[in-house]
């Protein structure tokens, strides 16, 4: 028992000598910890991410969006795309969308398709020949020619109409009992009446204007 204090004193001396030998390293470590703590204390907390609805997988033009087609991704504040739609379920895509691409108003069939073209209005038009509609592509500029089935002269119902969307035909081709296929065109507002009347009383065909 009398030797225990001696052993303790000896161990203490060894520890003290070890600390003294490494005092510069320990001082440097303490300084680094102090700097890190100071930076943590003064750092601006990160802003919370903004949830943005994006495509969960590649989607084709005309797809009607379902819950399983969508997912949510966090965007940093200030990077959220303009026109982002938070809940687009049930809306129809005007064009194809890649996986991870945000769903915005201009990606959907509707008036927003002509947001950047105030000179045009969006008008659904039924072309009588679905094969003719298959030749069109979004972005095409066409003239709509109205032919009188009774043999009257053909007239141009719309000039430089912009193809905005090509919704796919219904899975049941006879679902609405009507022939042809509906396309969405951007037309001058002054031409809406002529085009609408021609879809009922005349045969419409298209001419690529550019």
Task: Give the topology.
Layout: H1 3-21, H2 23-42, E1 50-55, E2 70-75, E3 121-127, H3 130-134, E4 141-147, E5 155-165, E6 181-187, H4 192-201, E7 203-208
Antiparallel strand pairs: 1-2, 3-6, 4-5, 4-7, 5-6
The ordered H/E elements are HHEEEHEEEHE
User: Counting H and I runs of at least 4 residues, what is the number of helices?
Assistant: 4
What class do helices, strands and sheet pairing give?
A: alpha+beta
Give, in spatial order, the strands making up the sheet with the most strands.
3-6-5-4-7
Fraction in helix:
25-40%
Oligomer: single chain
| Radius of gyration, whole Å | 35 Å
Regions with little confidence, pLDDT below 50 for 5+ residues: none
Separation, N- and C-terminal Cα atoms: 106 Å
Largest sheet: 5 strands, antiparallel
Structure summary, number of beta strands: 7
Would you give an account of this structure?
With 210 residues, the protein is of the alpha+beta class. Helices cover 26% and strands 24% of the residues. It has helices spanning 3-21, 23-42, 130-134, 192-201, and strands at residues 50-55, 70-75, 121-127, 141-147, 155-165, 181-187, 203-208. A five-stranded antiparallel β-sheet has the order 3-6-5-4-7. It has a two-stranded antiparallel ribbon with strand order 1-2. The protein is rod-shaped, with a radius of gyration of 35 Å.
What attributes does this structure have?
rod-shaped, alpha+beta, 26% helix, 4 helices, two-stranded antiparallel ribbon
